[in-house]
């Protein structure tokens, strides 16, 4: 297949590019900064020559959007909204203008669209869309608005020959450097991987292998369209999530952090506490109904697998650095 990945240079794009290329597909990444073969330039806002790669492709998977790991200032929130809505709109325009439109448009969305909740798990049919919860910071509603507008930009696009699926993804866990798992593991290794603000908030997650498998499954399943949750069936409270991660690496303790310590830490990391404190209890209703089987459905086992891969890639990096140093000395 010919697969086009707008915004495919980031964490999720790297995972998909690697897996789909290894499976023999022809992957083209659309980016604001093309640097290598199979990368095409765009601005994420306007139609241009880049749209030629969409014409005649089989699948477009749009991942573009300003990183959410930042301080939620007005300016950053606006950029998070615009980069998602504009890129989804212009991808729709490219598909609408194509003489040979792709048969499928997978549009990244987010599990953050669901309400902050602790009790009933949210699936696509019965889940509660967030934005009007009591007792949470007002600006959390903005993240829900981003997700809704993002999905609307896709659903309203006039692309009758193309099936459309919005991927309401939970945090994708992969050992790649700089990804969310890498950051959490780094904190755990420093002894800082304790519960935050009591740790009762739910963490929804999906193992990178299952993320790729779910994308491949959705490509095959012509009968599935609309929003689909990409989350393991085993979301769990943050306290247990971090305990399993510490156990997988072998860290005996994790300092707990209060809400204000989390605020301070997020400030230092130029990030925002919503990422840590919002309770996301999201489950894969439609994937399950369609017969998708998760290879990693329980976090403790998934964490052991991810830690094993993180250790191997660290050892490989050390090996390469050692070899380079000895070449330099000789
Ligand atoms: N990672 C997760 O666990 C997760 C979970 C749920 C949802 N998501 C969503 O899935 C998408 C991909 O996630 P990710 O972790 O791969 O994100 P990422 O690492 O931040 O990558 C997103 C890509 O979007 C492009 N981009 C950034 N700002 C842009 C702008 N103003 N206009 C156009 N393109 C822009 C960048 O590509 P260039 O700089 O090369 O143009 C960047 O590589 C994001 O929208 C994210 O919110 C991610």
From TrEMBL:
Residues 5-228 form the NAD-dependent epimerase/dehydratase domain. Gene3D superfamilies: NAD(P)-binding Rossmann-like Domain. InterPro entries: DUF1731, Epimerase_deHydtase, NAD(P)-bd_dom_sf. Residues 272-305 form the DUF1731 domain. PANTHER family: EPIMERASE FAMILY PROTEIN SDR39U1 (PTHR11092:SF0), SUGAR NUCLEOTIDE EPIMERASE RELATED (PTHR11092). This is NAD-dependent epimerase. It comes from Streptomyces filipinensis.
């Amino acid at each position: 297949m010919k697969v086009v990945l707008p915004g495919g240079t980031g964490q999720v794009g790297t995972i998909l590019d690697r897996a789909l290329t290894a499976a023999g597909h022809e992957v083209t990444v659309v980016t604001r900064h093309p640097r290598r073969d199979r990368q095409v330039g765009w601005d994420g806002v306007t139609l241009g020559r880049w749209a030629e790669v969409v014409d005649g492709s089989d699948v477009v998977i749009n991942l573009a959007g300003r990183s959410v790991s930042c301080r939620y200032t007005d300016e950053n929130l606006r950029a998070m909204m615009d980069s998602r809505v504009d890129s989804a709109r212009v991808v729709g325009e490219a598909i609408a203008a194509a003489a040979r439109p792709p048969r499928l448009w997978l549009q990244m969305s987010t599990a953050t669209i669901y309400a902050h909740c602790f009790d009933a798990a949210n699936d696509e049919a019965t889940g509660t869309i967030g934005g009007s919860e009591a007792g949470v910071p007002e600006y959390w509603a903005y993240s829900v608005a981003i997700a809704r507008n993002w999905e609307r930009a896709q659903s309203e696009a006039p692309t009758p020959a193309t099936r459309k699926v919005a991927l309401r993804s939970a945090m994708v866990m992969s050992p790649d450097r700089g990804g969310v798992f890498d950051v959490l593991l780094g904190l755990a290794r420093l002894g800082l991987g304790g519960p935050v603000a009591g740790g009762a908030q739910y963490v929804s997650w999906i193992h990178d292998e299952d993320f790729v498998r779910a994308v491949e499954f959705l490509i095959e399943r012509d009968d599935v369209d609309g929003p689909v949750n990409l989350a393991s069936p085993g979301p769990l409270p943050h306290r247990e999530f971090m305990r399993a991660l510490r156990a997988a690496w072998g860290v005996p303790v994790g300092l707990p952090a209060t809400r204000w310590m989390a605020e301070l830490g997020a400030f230092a990391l130029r990030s925002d506490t919503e990422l840590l404190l919002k309770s996301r209890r999201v489950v894969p209703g439609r994937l399950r109904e369609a017969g998708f089987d998760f290879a990693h459905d329980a976090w403790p086992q998934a964490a052991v697998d991810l830690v094993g891969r993180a250790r191997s890639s660290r050892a490989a990096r050390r090996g390469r650095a050692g070899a380079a140093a000895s070449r330099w000395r000789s």
